[in-house]
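Hello forum,

I keep getting stuck at the same step: I have a sequence, I want structure tokens, and every attempt I make locally crashes halfway through. Rather than fight my setup again tonight, could one of you with a working pipeline run this one for me? It's a single chain of 338 residues.
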Amino acid sequence: MGLGRWRVGRGTNLALLVVILLAVATGALAFAIGGGWAWWVVAAHGAAGLAIVLLAPWKTAISARGIRRRRSGSVASVALAMLVLIAVTSGVAHAVGWWTGTLAMQVHVGAALGSIPLVAWHVVARPVRPRKTDLSRRSLLRGAALAGGSLATLGGVEAFVRVAGLPGAERRFTGSYERGSFDPDRMPVTQWLDDEIPRVDAGLWRLEVRSLAATRTWTFDELLGFGDEIRGVLDCTGGWFASQEWSGVRVDRLLEPDPDARSFVAVSVTGYARRLPIVEASRVLLATRVGGLPLSAGHGYPLRLVAPGRRGFWWVKWVERIEASSTPWWWQSPFPLT
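Reply #2:
Ran it on my machine without issues. Output:
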């Protein structure tokens, strides 16, 4: 009996470690991807979360034994369990449409990030040494059964959402919900982390464009003379998206062609910046208007980047500088640090 329990506990803990790491990895990747194949990443993220739910009965029994024996570190273990529970519950609630919006995603992501150091502690404090039996036929079959069960549960949840007509049936492939499409006044105003909405005087403001061989400044009135248009979907990591008609000037019209340029950086008056591939310069817009009207301060007045196919944190607001560079675009933090 005791040996059987030990084996079950070992297998459950290993499986939980794998699915938690998978949930964190796919969650981060889903935040970064704005293209169509994000659906597969979001589906894997959802399946990993549901696998945690399927393992919960076994882990609950294991944890109860540990608490009865008053093992050291029980408080940290309970805190980890609570954070994982909050992350999974808020994620499911957002997916089906019971709780949507930026706060829901903040709770979901915050709980997931908070669990990471506790997972690391748990691995160190409760080490499980690898064994050959971990890759035995029986273990692999159990892993396959868990994966199949989580995918089947995910399919069942999706079917229930659609049959019941829940809001989750209308979410985009990234998991985001529509907010204010073709109505900029209803589009949410959000910033990344500690960015704040600045007050910019367009009469004094200048856009500095640094090509590799030359630098030029543009006034707001000069930029208004361009009439490039893009219909782009702003898909925010806060859990919402909006389709809008954006107008302004393509980045490639402002940068002088140079074979040595590999990327360009868009820098905000707040210091926020993102680097994009130079090959996207012809598809990226510096917008002065949205829906035929001037940008509001919250939406990036006087100038913001519009980067179709990329998540919202790439759409730099309040742009004051565009700079070509020989540095590859990926030479930066995957997500802004401030």
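The two ends are 53 Å apart (CA to CA). If your local run keeps crashing, start a new thread with the error log.
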